[in-house]
Amino acid sequence: ERLKILYGEDTNGDLSPDKYVTADNVTNMNNVIAVKLMLLARTSDDNLSANGQNYTFNGVPGIVPTDKRIRRAFNVVITIRNRAT
Question: What are phi and psi of 17, to 5 degrees?
Fold first, then answer.
């Protein structure tokens, strides 16, 4: 249902992301050392849960959909090889 990609930028040279931003907000792509992927998957069928299922996506908790599909959020942070040690 949704895919969000954020880039972890190391702005102070300590080999750890200081901020995660969208691609258009990266100040220097050479400083990107990680990528955060957030995926929201949902069932194709409606009316599978008794009530609207609350979920958290992109750090926003308590999102209540208007349908009764089942959703699950997946998050992963991937370090870019040879950019961080």
Answer: -60, 130
Q: In sequence order, which residues have a C-beta less than 8 Å from that of residue 54 and are 6 or more positions away?
A: 61, 62, 63, 64
Q: How confident is the model at residue 85 (pLDDT cuts 50, 70, 90)?
A: low
- Quickly tell me which residue has 């929201």 as its tokens: 40
- Of the CA atoms within 13 Å of residue 81, those in its CB half-sphere come to 0
**Top-confidence residue, 85 or 20:** 20
Tens of pLDDT, residues 6-15? 999 999 989 8
What span, in angstroms and rounded, lies between the C-alpha atoms of 17 and 7? Answer: 9
25 three-class SS:
helix
Contacts of 32 (CB under 8 A, 6+ apart): 7, 8, 9, 10, 26, 80, 83
Tell if the pTM clears 0.70, that is, is over it. Answer: yes
Q: Are 56 and 31 in contact (CB under 8 A)?
A: no
